[in-house]
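Quick board copy: two proteins, each given as sequence then tokens.
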Amino acid sequence: QVQLVESGGGLVQPGGSLRLSCAASGSIASMIGMGWYRQGPGKQRELVASMGSLGATNYADSVKGRFTISRDNAKNTVYLQLNSPKPEDTGVYYCKAVSLSGTTWGQGTQVTVSS
């Protein structure tokens, strides 16, 4: 079993920056990949970025060139760097971990992009 602890959400101005963190613990050896999803007001939850166990990354078209997913293996932490966020990036961001035993979700952290 994998447990996730998210942090870093908050209010950010358009054109600013923000970094979200997701620290994993538990059965880390069985993890296949991790990722970030978000759900904006009145929208379905969507994939923002993901990273496989070998480091391959995938991004939603809407965030390519602006957001970056990275990880620190020593800290068992995955990050999402939000550069030049837009109001439409507002939503609850969820960390996700996929392991051999199943999928684990964080509780989410609110990101609000507003001037």
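And the next:
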Amino acid sequence: QVQLQESGPGLVKPSQTLSLTCTVSGGSITTNNYYWSWIRQPPGKGLEWMGNMNYIGNTYYSPSLKSRTSISRDTSKNQFTLHLSSVTPEDTAVYYCVREVRGGDFASWGQGTQVTVSS
């Protein structure tokens, strides 16, 4: 059974770039039929899908975040990484890495990591 774990800083300053890494075990990020996704939840708000990467390495991003978001990967470590540039306090949220399947099924989640952007 696949497991995902987020890692990265809990505090970043406005205008900096946030980088969070997801380490996957029990499954390969190069296996077909899965998408490796990032979802966040700001305090008091709903979940926001940010973007994903498929098994080839192609990416797709939410239109509202596309200009500031990129996802990379290290297949030798079975990891994929979120990069969010020019952060503001509105980017404060709990960030999750998620395994997504066709049809929008977000079946496997990391525990989530709190990220605070100072003001």
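Board note added afterward: The first strand starts at residue 3 and ends at 7.
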